[in-house]
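### Sample
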Amino acid sequence: MAETLQLFVGNIVHCEKPYEVSSLEKGFVALKGNKIVSVGDATSLANFRATIEVKYNILEYILKDSQVLIPGLIDTHVHACQYSNVGLGMDLKVVPWLWEHTFPLELKCKDIEYSRRCYDAVVKKALDYGTTTASYNAAIYTDSALVLADSVIKHGQRALVGKVNHTRQGPDYYVETHKEFIDETRRFIEEIQKKKSSLVQAIITPRSPTCSDLENMELLIGLGKEFGLRVQTHLKESLEGFKVFTTPPVKNPNCKTKIFPKKTIYAHCVHLSEEEIQALVNSESTVSHCPNSNVNLRSGICDVRALIKAGIHVGLGTDVSGGCSLSLMNAMRYAVACSNFLSFGKDNYEPIGWRDAFYMATLGGAKVLDLDKEIGNFEVGKEFDAVIIDMNVKDGPIDYLEDCSALETLQKFIYAGDDRNVVSVYVAGRKVK
């Protein structure tokens, strides 16, 4: 019996190189199982069909002219446990927001049923927006974090899931003991491995470099090295939070960069000096840019252009619930807007544009999470994580009055689209929306 091959035919847009957007008008992507086996333009489609018709049963999907196939969107920083607080406390800055809204909410995740309702909602909504991969922060509770992993597996998303570590500089009701800090993280990692999911992996998640003493932090990083896991944390999010929640990576003798392994994922990085940027370059660390959150909580505006020029991989994070939406379209808009703000009054400043934002939401995000060998674009051999967008949908956010090219359709999606324009979502070749 012949194997089945899926063939997507229509307008295709992805990034083959950093910060460059490629368009295939009436092109095709073919996949066998979860892997991409061929990509081509309209002129090579007939020859490709002829070579496969004898070998495979072909399931063909013809996109409408108003539709575009793009890679799955990648959220490099989101607090799943904070979802029910979306839109609350936006009149506060980071530190009071954490104490008045965030810590009391994360405490609720000790309740497994609450966690299940929250995490199911987060994962489903993220998929609705076209987020095929997310790097999640859960709460400090191991069993709650495992529920998040189960939700990801159940709904077919791809994710890094982290149990947050926090032993100090928080309320007494929401910190771990020194023993829990390590023992529970080990239990979390081992339980994730038992699930044997190809889509979900654990990630080491200290809340910030100063939320534990140096000895415990070194033990935690050692645990990550033992299991071969990435590390994610917050860094220099706001000026008011330096003493409480963030640490300069090179200046504080109590928490030196050397304790963090190479390729650590740092969220925010709004207030970095040139010396600190170079420290990230030297450690091959990556940055999750969270523009919506940075504006909402008045943390500042990250100079993404400076990070890019330095050679740092930058992705986008929604940072819910500091960010008020799980939409990466929203994150792309805010990234462009914030860069425009920084350019005002500067003759030689080149702000990022929609192409840069799209790269950061796809291949750039994959590089930040060290997943670019598996996902991020439509390269042969990679897994098929993809989204079909359509800007001509009934009751959509805008009226589609004139035909658009593939690149014009993508621009409309970035600046004006929402979940109604995400008509199909695929993760590892499986349709999940």
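Residues 242-257 have pLDDT under 50 and may be disordered. This sample (Amidohydrolase-related domain-containing protein) is used throughout the tutorial notebook.
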